[in-house]
Amino acid sequence: MKRIKYSLCLMLLLTALISCQKSPDSKAEMNVQKEPFGKTPDGTEIELYTLTNYNGMKARIMTYGAILVSLKVPDRNGKLADITLGYDDLAGYIKNNPYFGATVGRYANRIAKGQFTLDGVEYQLAQNDGENHLHGGARGFDKVIWKGEPVKEGNTVGVKLTYLSKDGEEGYPGNLLCTVVYKLTNENTLTISYEATTDKATIINLTHHSYFNLAGQGNGDILNHELMINADKYTPVDKGLIPTGEIRSVKNTPMDFTTPHTIGSRIAEVEGGYDHNYILNKDPGVMGLVARVFEPTSGRVMEIYSTEPGVQFYSGNFLDGSITGKSGKVYRKYYGFCLEPQHFPDSPNEPQFPSVILNPGGKFKSESIYKFYTK
Ligand code: BGC
Fold it and tell me: What Rg value do the Cα atoms of the chain yield, rounded?
């Protein structure tokens, strides 16, 4: 009898110890779930993949545009909030999406007049931003339908999205086979990896275009977020936001985020707000720090690492209150910021910029990591 009592006590003690080790929110199991997310006007079913980690952090990704639909991240009290702008349903994204959460390609950012020459051949791309080409054209990667499949590898859950962009799509040469993999870990990191191959020489520049608000989407503007960008230099632009070709130091200018500054502290001195490509202090192709952002009320910190040589910092200047997004929130000017790791804008016309050419037999590879913690 004594023995039974003793074993019972031991069991109770062990159970108590195990449950103590888990935080109150940690009931979540690491998993990936698939569900329907509506149909496009032509009747194609769109799937939504939800990645969940041990801390309850959740990333939802859909097969339309390989778009990150929401990203729920804990604050310093463990309370989750969705920190990306977007819509509650597919219809919102189809109707009017200024690239919320999108996978952008074939060429993220601008190409002057949509023109470039490769191996002596002149190409004319779609001109969808005045006379310039922006974010892959009229129907870029953010508007096409990707094939999704769940991924579970070691300590990560994810989704792999595949798309074949046909030769001539939006004016680009070559059949380009692309994959984008989103992966979530228990360390609250979201990794986005890109790969592509082609059967003709072409150009490529892929990025991720979430508008972040670390206080929670729709929860005011981002002017009090403290930002550090790991870049001593940037590429100045003309009126159409095309780089002039000059590489300029950020020193003693409102462009300098080498030490943390709130986004709002000097934004009035930058005509139109921030919408610039920074040249990262690291070797292209090597994974390194891009930026760190801290939001004081929630305590959330986001760090971005990437293999890309540049980052476009866009402070949500064109949001104007005309979009009502998730949970009925109205998105006003500066309500979200984008940090888009990428090659420099208009690289095909600036031979001194890192190359964006992909040849048959070669493989395009790029990876960016979004790491979250609180302080
Ligand atoms: C660009 C902005 C553009 C926005 C589109 C950003 O990547 O830098 O100029 O307006 O995307 O929503």
Answer: 22
